[in-house]
Amino acid sequence: MKQKFSIEGMNCDHCVAKVEKAVNELTGIEKVKIHLKKKNGVIKFDETLTSTDQIIQKISEAGYQASLA
User: Fold this and answer.
1) What is the pTM of this model?
2) Do residues 5 and 55 lie in contact, with contact meaning Cβ atoms separated by under 8 Å?
3) CB neighbourhood size of 40 (10 A)
4) DSSP collapsed to 3 states, 3-68
5) Which burial class, exposed, middle or buried, applies to 20 when counting CB atoms under 10 A from its CB (0-12, 13-18, 19+)?
6) For residue 8, what are the β-bridge partners?
7) pLDDT, tens digit, for every residue of 30-46?
8) If 0-12 CB within 10 Å is exposed, 13-18 middle and 19+ buried, where does residue 5 land?
9) Of all residues in the chain, what percent carry a pLDDT higher than 70?
10) Which pLDDT does position 44 carry in this prediction?
11) How many Cα neighbours within 13 Å face the side chain of 18?
């Protein structure tokens, strides 16, 4: 499954790397592409192993606000 997320609070490449690292810690993540200027990200994942809620939670734990786009 591929899902787009809105992500608020990022202001540099370090923020992008932090979000990507956090999301990649979840089981079932296949691809993560975070866009700093667009304030969003597209995440491809196996929905039998992880959920959009888990992804949003992981982004929140990294210090950013996320929601489905």
Assistant:
1) 0.96
2) yes
3) 18
4) EEEEEECCCCHHHHHHHHHHHHCCCCEEEEEEECCCCEEEEEECCCCCCHHHHHHHHHHCCCEEEE
5) middle
6) 65
7) 999 999 999 999 999 99
8) buried
9) 100
10) 98
11) 15
| CA atoms within a 13 Å half-sphere pointing along the CA-CB vector of 32 | 19
């079932």: which residue's tokens? 28
What is d(CA 30, CA 12) in angstroms, rounded to the nearest whole number? 24
How far, rounded to the nearest angstrom, does the alpha carbon of residue 25 sit from its chain's CA centroid?
11
Mean pLDDT of the chain: 98
Give the pLDDT score at 14: 98
> How long a stretch of residues is the chain?
69
CB atoms within 10 A of CB 41: 25
- DSSP one-letter code for 2: E
Find tokens 């540099």 and name the residue.
12
